[in-house]
């Protein structure tokens, strides 16, 4: 019996080691022409922001609660599927249009080569303006951009420069991009997303680029420092997840989170996302309130605001089409605020019902607004499945909303100044809002769930 237990322990250890084994990435794990990679763009949550920078061996990144917002497909093409006469290479479209200070280049493609030593970008295709004409160019990198060196293993670090120059001697046109790429394999372990669980390497990539453009009398340069955190797995030909952003004065600012995903009923990648907040949701007649527009759109969007009921005015020169209008309310009550964002690639609508509460001027007999708004919610951030509310006023109603103002749960108040909130299950990590009715006042408090 003892011998059987020993065998079982050895088997369990071997199984656990296999599940969480350190992986190595080589050229066979890279995409090839004809591959497609569907991905979702997700909202940042506290779990990602608190753990993405973790380094070391046998780490666990549990991101299966992130919420997808948009979806797109990444395609890897044969050179024959592009507008350019290049053979024997895999291609990926970079952009339909890239604008440089009033000058645009079109149909931009990168061309790749894959070998046992490196996966690299060594040629670019684009259509550029030459006076009244637009002509194709396909310059080759004098110094290729090595995306990865193989094999890629834990604690590897490589630094490579790159340089691409196009100079048309028959027309005053010059374009170059140069810089360097640093890859550091900071960690290995297991990571989970809504798509699945994978053994992976976590690679930090710093990319410093200097673009120089000259067309006729226009001359300018652009320097960029971007950073990607990539969870790379042998199971997929593209990273399981990428967190990307900009580095400003040495500080990384996350901008985009995307992960490999299956088909979901989501808007397209270039469709906008409507988001807005107000600094306060409880005001008085005659007060002026400005909305904070947090909408996301790759393409410049248009905005359309609507308010119900209509007892309000746009002030300070703003209109219903302003990005961040100013409102002045002329009657008491609860107001719905709606924002519609349209960028030509799609439209998104966010409606916050009963979002603004307008009260009459406070009389001497009333409980002061500042006293009522002394609301404590704890713990915040929330890690468990219950929390407390404590306030100076009477708790009449509590509603829990997500970032899109969707109702998650509602509680009837106990008319006391303290109340315990219990959740059926632990909430997924994210940012939420508690909408509180306290002594006839309408308040909103942010709640972070870890």
Helix content: under 10%
Low-confidence stretches: 4-19, 362-369
Distance between the termini: 44 Å
For the sheet with most strands, the description reads: 15 strands, mixed
Taking all Cα atoms into account, the compactness measure Rg is 27 Å
Portion in beta strands: over 45%
Number of domains: 3
The total of helices stands at 3
Structural class: mainly beta
Q: What can you tell me about this protein's structure?
A:
With 450 residues, the chain is mainly beta. The protein has three domains: 19-260, no CATH class; 270-361, Immunoglobulin-like (Sandwich); 372-450, Sandwich (Immunoglobulin-like). Helices cover 6% and strands 57% of the residues. It has a 15-stranded mixed sheet that branches. The radius of gyration is 27 Å and the shape is globular. 25% of the residues are buried. Residues 4-19 and 362-369 have low confidence and may be disordered.
Task: Give the SSE map.
Elements: H1 2-19, E1 36-42, H2 46-51, E2 56-62, E3 68-75, E4 77-78, E5 90-100, E6 103-114, E7 118-130, E8 133-137, E9 140-149, E10 157-168, E11 173-193, E12 196-215, E13 218-232, E14 241-248, E15 251-260, E16 276-278, E17 282-284, E18 288-293, E19 302-308, E20 312-315, E21 326-329, E22 333-342, E23 347-359, H3 369-372, E24 376-378, E25 386-390, E26 395-401, E27 407-412, E28 418-422, E29 430-438, E30 441-449
Parallel strand pairs: 2-11, 17-23
Antiparallel strand pairs: 1-3, 1-15, 4-5, 5-6, 6-7, 7-8, 7-9, 9-10, 10-11, 11-12, 12-13, 13-14, 14-15, 16-18, 18-21, 19-22, 20-21, 22-23, 24-25, 25-28, 26-27, 26-29, 29-30
């Amino acid at each position: 019996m003892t011998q059987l237990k020993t065998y079982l322990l050895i088997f369990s250890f071997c199984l656990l080691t296999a599940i969480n084994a350190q992986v190595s990435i080589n050229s066979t794990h890279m995409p090839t022409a004809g591959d497609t990679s569907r991905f979702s763009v997700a909202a940042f949550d506290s779990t990602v922001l608190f753990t993405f920078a973790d380094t070391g061996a046998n780490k666990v990144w549990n991101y299966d609660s992130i919420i997808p917002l948009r979806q797109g497909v990444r395609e890897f093409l044969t050179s024959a599927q592009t507008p350019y006469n290049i053979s024997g290479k895999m291609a990926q479209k970079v952009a339909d249009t890239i604008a440089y200070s009033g000058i645009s280049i079109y149909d931009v493609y990168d061309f790749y080569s894959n070998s046992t030593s490196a996966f690299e970008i060594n040629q670019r295709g684009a259509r550029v303006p030459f006076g009244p004409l637009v002509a194709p160019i396909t310059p080759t990198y004098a110094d290729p951009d090595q995306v990865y060196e193989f094999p890629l293993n834990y604690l590897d670090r490589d630094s490579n420069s790159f340089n691409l120059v196009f100079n048309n001697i028959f027309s005053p046109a010059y374009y170059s991009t140069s810089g360097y790429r640093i890859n550091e394999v900071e960690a290995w372990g297991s990571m989970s997303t809504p798509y699945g669980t994978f053994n992976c390497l976590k690679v930090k990539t710093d990319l410093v680029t200097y673009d120089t453009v000259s067309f006729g009398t226009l001359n300018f340069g652009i320097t960029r420092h971007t950073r990607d955190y990539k969870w790379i797995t042998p199971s997929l030909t593209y990273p399981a997840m990428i967190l990307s952003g900009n580095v400003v004065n040495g500080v990384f600012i996350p901008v985009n989170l995307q992960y490999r995903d299956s088909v979901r009923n989501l808007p397209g990648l270039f469709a906008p996302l409507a988001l807005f907040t107000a600094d306060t949701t409880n005001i008085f007649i005659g007060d002026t309130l400005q909305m904070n527009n947090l909408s996301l759109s790759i393409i410049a969007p248009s905005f359309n605001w609507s308010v119900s009921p209509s007892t309000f005015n746009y002030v300070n020169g703003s209109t219903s089409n302003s990005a961040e209008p100013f409102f002045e309310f002329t009657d008491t009550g609860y107001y719905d605020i709606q924002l519609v964002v349209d960028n030509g690639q799609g439209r998104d609508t966010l409606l916050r019902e009963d979002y603004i509460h307008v009260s009459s001027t406070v009389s001497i007999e009333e409980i002061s607004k500042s006293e009522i708004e002394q609301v404590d919610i704890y713990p915040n951030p929330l890690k468990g499945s219950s929390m407390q509310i404590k306030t100076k006023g009477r708790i009449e109603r509590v509603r829990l909303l997500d970032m899109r103002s969707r109702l998650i749960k509602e509680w009837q108040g106990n008319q006391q100044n303290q109340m315990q909130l219990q959740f059926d299950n632990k909430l997924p990590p994210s940012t939420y809002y508690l909408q509180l009715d306290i002594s006839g006042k309408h308040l909103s408090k942010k709640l972070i769930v870890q």
